[in-house]
Design goal:
There is one protein chain. It is built from eight helices and eight strands. The chain has about 230 residues and is α/β, with parallel strands linked by helices. Strand 2, helix 2 and strand 3 form a beta-alpha-beta unit. The longest helix has 14 residues. It is globular and about 45 Å long.
Amino acid sequence: MKTTELLTAAVTGRPVAIAPSLLSADFTALHREVTEIAAAGARVLHLDVMDGHFVPNITFGPPLVKSLRGCTDLVLDAHLMISEPEKYIEPFAQAGSDCIVFHYEARPDRAGELLRRIRGLGKKAGIALKPKTPAAAILPLLPELDLVLIMTVEPGFGGQSFMADQVPKIRTVAEAIAAGGYECELEVDGGIGPVTAKTVVAAGANWLVAGNAVFGAANRAAAMQAMIDAVRG
């Protein structure tokens, strides 16, 4: 598989990484699944944590993250789609998450405080935005952010179609990151495949969450390569 090291996003110039989403993996063979995507060139593993309240689905918690930490060196990117993220920051940090991302909509009044708590634990701190939340909501927080996650589907379930009306939001955040000179990753999650990967990288995204497009493919390396080739093309 070709390296993504020379691939950079428009606007910010930050390195592009494909982040396969564990939600679409075979949960009866997680060690094999994670080992396979690492061998295929993945550097980031996206972990969709859902509580059945903030979103209408339930997935997994810190014990699974701890198990994953014991079998992989991939960056563990914990996306907390939960109503009370303040209760779970420490458990996910202790379990071995490298990035902890919570939704702005869950705690708009405490966002800065929670970002500082995450960073205080030595982890990268991120905020996620639902499709209806404008970019302007989090732009003042950019100095405290290591990652912004823009949802290009409604959070809660995998396999949804990409929402093209989110592309201007991606570009707005990318331009703000570049203007401020921030070392902030711009992640996109939802309906990412070869065609949409090219679209979001052109808008400024550099971490691409891909669930079914990777784990749903018989050849995961080829699926990731198809996205890389599309971005290069």
